[in-house]
Amino acid sequence: MAYKTDIQIAREANKKPIQEIGAKLGIGSDDLLPYGHDKAKVSQDFINSVQDREDGKLILVTAINPTPAGEGKTTTTVGLGDGLNRIGKNAAVCIREASLGPNFGMKGGAAGGGYAQIIPMEEMNLHFTGDFHAITSAHSLLSAMIDNHIYWGNALEIDTRRVVWRRVVDMNDRALRQITASLGGVSNGFPREAGFDITVASEVMAILCLAKDLQDLQKRLGDMIVAYRRDRTPVYARDIKADGAMTVLLKDAMQPNLVQTLENNPAFVHGGPFANIAHGCNSVIATTTALKLADYVVTEAGFGADLGAEKFMNIKCRKAGLSPSVVVCVATVRAMKMNGGVAKADLGPENVEAVQAGCPNLGRHIENLKSFGVPVVVAINHFVTDTDAEVQAIKDFVAEQGAEAILSRHWELGSEGSADLATRVAQIADADTANFAPIYPDEMSLFDKIQTICKRIYRADEALMDQKIRDQLKQWEEQGYGDLPVCMAKTQYSFSTDPSLRGAPTGHSVPVREVRLSAGAGFVVAVCGEIMTMPGLPRVPSAENIMLNDKGEVEGLF
To answer: Which band of pLDDT confidence, cut at 50, 70 and 90, is reported for residue 105?
Structure first.
């Protein structure tokens, strides 16, 4: 049987005007700022007006470590949201926006798949409502103002060797990782080493996703450390007087975007920090707004639970006062086989032994998630090649872990295929058995926070940090940043820092290469192993196959 591609399904969708979608959540058309007919921003005035309402139930969707076989976390998030609406619940979905970098690299689109998608798909994966452009522009304005300040006399006495504010672009471009800026003589400024990160790794992105409102946004932007003086005292963005203009550029980007699923259910798509190099969750303002408008809010955290879910719990929930009622961990038969040592080309034939051999990766994620005090359900995202025996092997394994696995066929059948999962998830959420708490307290030292995550989540023997890094952490504690959570920048493919080490490894160490202080966002980034904050393109980038067809439609993006 030939299945339609994601883009074909999305194009055939029966889209409703965005005002109708807003009405489902009680948002009047005057409170929507439309971008065309099928997407709109929700006004800050409306968001302010619903703050006294009770919150709905928060459901987090996470996954096992990603494999080339695919897991379908966003697909499951959307399918579960549609499933909850199908069984009569008032539910909304919250996901991240897509970065252009991976779209043209190798990851492809980020709007779900099959019959569990968010539309309009092409716009969501390309420029959408311009939020990422606004973030890139605000970040670039600060970069320009720092170098301009130095050029016109450097009244703040910035040590040009200690400018820590890098530049950004929303593209995978390894040539920009390390550059020399201001070459070409006196009129171009003082030459210095610089570099680019991808926009989604910008502290401005993290701040937009963690800020409560425009006032909070401006304060956090002002709190960002951009450089140090010769005496090692910090220079802040507010010292450069950039925070006001940056807030102006981000004014519209701060408002959450409302779109719809294929089944015309409401979906908020806002913000997009990567989970391996940033904190990997959609914006706090989108999630908290959705919780005021819907009885159930299904959101996702990027990559495997060792990254996305850990940061969702320890950073986003801690900072925003959120408390998830249930966590759904997505697994597939195919991914279990890959974790069990089967090559991608050999995933077709039934192989129950390989499924069982790969299950320890899932088991560890279940155990880790439970350690946050939240009940866990495993969603087996169904592929048409899965056999009953392989699915049963996962169900049996999960039952031994004291959790429940439910087969979900949302990719193929939409909400009809996810109704069982939705029914069980709603029951667990309504039972109010969650007793959520982050796994480390604010007052723990930064060094110990990093060690705690490495030992408890990654099951490493230790985090390796040289004296220079330890001294840096101590210095930040002395400056008053000791109570911040830590954001681990690590490969998504393994619990370890070796991307080829699948399954549930133990006996490994986590080398911390450098630490960065995101004083505005409110966390310390620990860069581990070979992880890059500016990715490169693969040998054959997806961009080579992306084009417009004869009808002027986008082809090759999915």
So the answer is: confident
Query: Which residue intervals of 503-543 are DSSP H helices?
Result: none
Which regions of the chain carry the CATH code 3.10.410.10? 446-528
The architecture that CATH gives domain 446-528 is: Roll (3.10)
CATH class of 132-241: alpha beta
| End-to-end Cα distance, the chain | 20
Report residue 99 as tokens.
């970065």
Distance separating alpha carbons of residues 390 and 404, to the nearest angstrom: 16
Q: Which of 312, 270, 292, 339 is nearest to 94 (CA)?
A: 270
Active site residues: 73, 75, 96, 107, 275, 303, 383, 411
Closest CA to 258 of 26, 22, 545, 511: 22
Orientation angle between helical segments 352-370 and 388-400, nearest 10 degrees: 30
Which tokens in the block code for residue 344?
């991608």
Confidence of residue 106 (pLDDT cuts 50, 70, 90): confident
**Highest CATH level, class, for 6-129+253-431:** alpha beta
Confidence of residue 2 (pLDDT cuts 50, 70, 90): low
Please state, as a whole number, how many other Cβ atoms lie within 10 Å of the Cβ of residue 462.
13
- Name residue 371's amino acid: S
Q: At 206, phi and psi to the nearest 5?
A: -60, -40
Which residues are CB-contacts of 358 (< 8 A; sequence separation ≥ 6)?
335, 336, 337, 338, 339, 340, 341, 502, 503
Q: What mean pLDDT is reported for the chain?
A: 94
pLDDT of 37 above 90 = yes
